[in-house]
Amino acid sequence: MAKEAEERRQAVWKKSFLILWIGCFITALGYSMTMPFISLYLDTLGHFNKWELNLYSGIAFSITYLSQAIVSPFWGNLADRKGRKLMCLRASGVMAFTIFFVGMAQSVLMVIVLRLLQGAFSGYINNATALMAGETPHKKSGQVMGNLMTANVTGTLLGPLFGGLIAGAVGYRMTFFITGILMGLVFVMTFLYVTEHFTPIPAKKIKPMGKIFHELRQPKLIIVMFLTTLFVQSSLMSISPIISLLVRQLMNGQGNISLVSGFVAAMPGFGTLLLASKVGHLMDKIGPERILLTGLLATAIIFVPMFFVTAPWQLGLLRFLLGLSSAAMLPAVQTILTLDVPSEAFGRIFSYNQSFQAAGGVAGPMVGSLVSSLFSYETVFLVTAMLIAIDLMIVTRVVRKG
């Protein structure tokens, strides 16, 4: 009987994992279908000089992460009381509407306001991760976190390709309409097919985060993981709002810039997809800390030669290598959080991690826009390499002490 019950439970969490994988894939797909071209889309809504376009692109890109960083702890607290499935439904439902209406925007201000609302109610991938962290046996945590990463990465990989083709054929607006419809599909699938074994905890019985941190085996490690998420996200997002502008510069304004931008934006996905699942298995064997340190070192090194690119294919090749190193970083952070934090606090811990990730999403694009306006697009890569190097030193010090 015990064996049959365990088999049933395993079948349930595997089914939920499959649906959440598809949901994370579509969320990432829709995001990456639209975001690499946000600056080009904004350019169609008015007449802007380089400084204005860089600034508006940075704001439109990062405003979502700003609201996300502010609101995430509230959603995390609610997740620990009401369940993570409800949070997935909330995120996918609201994102379906906000992204769809971005495609109907008539001004930059309207895009920024809708992106602000989108960030305030987003968090599907984060809550799907927290849900699976609670449903998955610990011995498979690294594998599941790594496989969820492949959903994110596969969507990120294919999104710019689809987005580039759609934008080139029927315009930028259609990419937002399609994304909104797909997020509506995610809402329905999550509602019908995801099962969460969750017992609601009354607000009075939830331990304060201060007490939970006090009981943790390595509280400094958890804080450093939050900071690592911020640094990694900042580095990955620093060039995102202006990547299409850099490609346009490298192509001297000639050719199918949208399609080439899509390919260049997608290249890290090829690398991450190649390694993400293997890295998950490796984490379960040798530990996520060693994987994280290796990924940070490789990333810092890879960013440096990006400063010297003179053609889109060079940038694409280096971004492919960046994807190889990226496969090790965020899944390793999530695995460390899963293994070192009690399940009753998963919602809040992962929401705090999302807040730091969102803060990186604010800082990265704004730093990228500022640096590119004051110096050059390529200079952004040197600044990014320095950020990752600083984080590598911090993580190394804490891991050695632990």
Automatic annotation (TrEMBL):
Keywords: Cell membrane, Membrane, Transmembrane, Transmembrane helix, Transport
Membrane topology: Multi-pass membrane protein
TM stretches of this protein: 18-41, 53-75, 95-117, 148-170, 176-195, 221-247, 259-279, 291-311, 317-337, 381-399
Chief site of localization: membrane
Sequence ranges assigned to domain Major facilitator superfamily (MFS) profile in this UniProt record: 16-402
GO cellular component, one term: plasma membrane
Example GO molecular function: transmembrane transporter activity
Cell compartments where the protein resides: Cell membrane
Pfam short name (any one): MFS_1
InterPro entries: MFS, MFS_dom, MFS_trans_sf, Tet-R_TetA/multi-R_MdtG-like
Domain of life: Bacteria
Keyword match Translocase: no
Keyword Methyltransferase among record annotations: no
UniProt-recorded name of the protein: Multidrug resistance efflux pump
